[in-house]
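hi! just following up on the protien thing from before. the input was this:
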Amino acid sequence: MTRDVYEYAVIRVMPKIERGELINAGVLLYCQPRDYLCARVHLDPARLRALDPGADLDGVRHALSAYERACGDRPGPLAGEPLGGRFRWLTAPRSTIVQTGPVHAGLTADPAIELARLFDKLVSL
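and the predicted 3d structure came back as:
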């Protein structure tokens, strides 16, 4: 079984940047040898409201869905970029409510299965 290097970052929501409190809301995974880039997101409204009762749920959902859209083949600002360039752009440091954590690496025989495993471990409760 051949295993390839992949990189991933947790997509997180930090409604009050100054407080530093966050919830994990997705995972972004890139595997260059398999030409794979995919994001999986899920927002738990109750957890977000526990951190910020006034959070803009629709705005956060829209920002999270941008990660999924940027990975696909749909037209958009990143559509012409190679997958590696998209991953680097999506994981660039930001001071916004929705942002990614540090990039980590691993080995996998199937990036889609690895994405599901990381999502279950890091995002799902």
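The radius of gyration is 15 Å.
The first strand starts at residue 4 and ends at 13.
cheers
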